[in-house]
């Protein structure tokens, strides 16, 4: 069984991952271009001193990853952190270590020390984003309803639109990742 560090060593950079996306690439780069990293020099300096590496479990078809990966990339670039990506569907044994309520929800970010020690993890959503998604899903009919698929596609489209256009969601996501990193490094 591979360690998280071994996965990290064999993974691709977040930059390369984004450059070779087949789904959601345009939306991902739109968020990357529009997201403004908050002025947070003390936090950035702390991250630089820690010299963390981040292993991302992701897939380019995932709407959450579409929104969160560019936010993480901005943070990583500012703090000189290396982020490398593995694909969830190609790495079930790693994904199974980082389930969310029993599910394979992504993205998942694993924070590693320079020596490869797992310091913490984050993902797939901030509480505010989760609340928005839950509210949208609560309006769906029962899965047995013949209109369910149509409504599901509409809800997914609405969520995706919010992910690509709502700076409040981006900021909340950043703040939640920040909080998780601080906790992991305390």
TrEMBL record:
It comes from Planococcus citreus. GO terms for molecular function: isomerase activity. Signal peptide: none annotated. This is Thiol-disulfide isomerase/thioredoxin. Pfam families: Thioredoxin_9. Keywords: Isomerase. CDD domains: TRX_family. InterPro entries: Thioredoxin-like_sf.
């Amino acid at each position: 069984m591979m360690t998280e560090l071994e996965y990290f060593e064999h993974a691709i950079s977040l930059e390369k991952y984004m450059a070779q996306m087949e789904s959601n690439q345009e939306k991902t780069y739109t968020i990357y271009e529009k997201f403004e990293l908050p002025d947070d020099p003390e936090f950035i300096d702390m991250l630089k001193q820690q010299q963390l590496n981040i292993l991302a479990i992701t897939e380019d078809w995932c709407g959450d990853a579409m929104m969160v990966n560019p936010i993480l990339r901005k943070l990583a670039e500012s703090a000189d952190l290396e982020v490398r990506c593995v694909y969830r569907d190609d790495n079930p044994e790693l994904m199974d270590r980082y389930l969310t309520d029993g599910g394979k929800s992504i993205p998942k970010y694993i924070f590693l020390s320079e020596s490869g020690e797992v310091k913490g993890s984050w993902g797939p959503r901030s509480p505010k984003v989760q609340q928005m998604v839950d509210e949208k899903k609560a309006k769906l009919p029962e899965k047995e309803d013949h209109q369910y698929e149509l409504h599901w596609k509409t809800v997914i489209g609405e969520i995706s639109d919010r992910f690509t256009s709502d700076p409040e969601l981006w900021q909340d996501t950043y703040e939640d990742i920040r909080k998780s990193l601080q906790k992991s490094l305390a």
